[in-house]
Amino acid sequence: xxxxxxxxxxxxxxxxxxxxxxxxxxxxxxxxxxxxxxxxxxxxxxxxxxxxxxxxxxxxxxxxxxxxxxxxxxxxxxxxxxxxxxxxxxxxxxxxxxxxxxxxxxxxxxxxxxxxxxxxxxxxxxxxxxxxxxxxxxxxxxxxxxxxxxxxxxxxxxxxxxxxxxxxxxxxxxxxxxxxxxxxxxxxxxxxxxxxxxxxxxxxxxxxxxxxxxxxxxxxxxxxxxxxxxxxxxxxxxxxxxxxxxxxxxxxxxxxxxxxxxxxxxxxxxxxxxxxxxxxxxxxxxxxxxxxxxxxxxxxxxxxxxxxxxxxxxxxxxxxxxxxxxxxxxxxxxxxxxxxxxxxxxxxxxxxxxxxxxxxxxxxxxxxxxxxxxxxxxxxxxxxxxxxxxxxxxxxxxxxxxxxxxxxxxxxxxxxxxxxxxxxxxxxxxxxxxxxxxxxxxxxxxxxxxxxxxxxxxxxxxxx
Length: 464
Ligand SMILES: N[C@@H](CCC(=O)N[C@@H](CS)C(=O)NCC(=O)O)C(=O)O
Prior knowledge:
The structure is a single chain. Helix content is 57%, strand content 5%. A hairpin with a 2-residue loop joins strand 1 (39-42) and strand 2. Helix 16 (344-353) packs parallel to helix 19. It is built from 22 helices and six strands. It folds into four domains: 7-48, no CATH class; 71-201, Glutathione S-transferase Yfyf (Class Pi), Chain A, domain 2, CATH 1.20.1050; 224-305, 3-Layer(aba) Sandwich (Glutaredoxin), CATH 3.40.30.10; 326-457, Up-down Bundle (Glutathione S-transferase Yfyf (Class Pi), Chain A, domain 2), CATH 1.20.1050.10. It is mainly alpha-helical. Bound molecules: glutathione. GO terms for molecular function: glutathione transferase activity. Keywords: Transferase. Its EC number is 2.5.1.18. One of its GO terms (biological process) is glutathione metabolic process.
């Protein structure tokens, strides 16, 4: 376990309050209204978000690597770590542990499906990366200890050894690693806390939108079938340096990948997906999320745009997207994660574009609150990292083009230049980068899509 990650370790030495005050003081990173643990403080620099911290630890202390050397295997580890945070943990905690009755039954199905993905991944392996413990194992580590406690507290058994033998074996292997075995918190106290939490918090925690659901129904040029045939053909002849990007007409996540490849001067082929009729190849390459973008490099498929950006960075070293310094790298990763997890895109799309009246007002407030954090971060800087465009800029890039279109479609002004001057300047800078300027999808078509989505959602038109 990484040093100083748990608030409990501070309380153990009895001066938790002092530490907490220090953390609150030091931690400039804002992920929510409160500062969340863990926060790692290294020589006075605060880093938050556990996965960002793990990357920082990896880059700062090189002994006992947590990530493999090979970029594809690295991407795999990052993919699973992200899957665990974004899908598995919420499905178990919010979907099962904090629910009851029919809602819980539904949650159980979803969490079992997620556990099944893990079971498939673990088959024949000791850890995610093979023989040695790594980043994804640390991300999943809680499960080795907490799943039983969750199950006890909720009074149901989800993952038995017979149905999930590889997962059970992993749990055993992981729990047996000496530093892991020595670091678990007191089982009795945890169980007690969880039972109390379940009791107090048993209320629906449903969000009004789901992360990144972009169901588009357009195929680019109406020649989808031809593309599909071509893809299948191409897939049969994987060339020496084959780089393909699965994208859709309006996907902002896919744009990140397109920009990164163009910035690095990597040639690639674009595969246009109709998200209302996904190709078998997309389902094959991204069986878990079934979303674009997917990058296929020499037959190896990588999904999740931020994981893909890291892969691109590792594979093609020219025009770096991340700075050299581990702390600055952590900062870039923090903001990329903030943009995705505070759900700037889903919050504007699902909370503003598709809503009206009071609900929309609530969505606007939430979006603007998140945007204010970005405004504060960009103050006095050209890009997130200073003078040059990088990972966090690519993560936010969609906003430079889509914000105005969203505003037009929703018929309201969200972020004016007076209130968000740094953001306005950043939008201009970003949109002026040649590879960015050349890659925007057709404005009219995107606007048409957004207007249609809004009408359909508000019941003013039958969805297509
Ligand atoms: N977290 C993903 C989000 C990708 C995503 O939401 N893609 C949307 C298009 S914008 C998609 O493929 N949606 C299809 C679906 O939800 O079925 C990433 O960063 O790549």
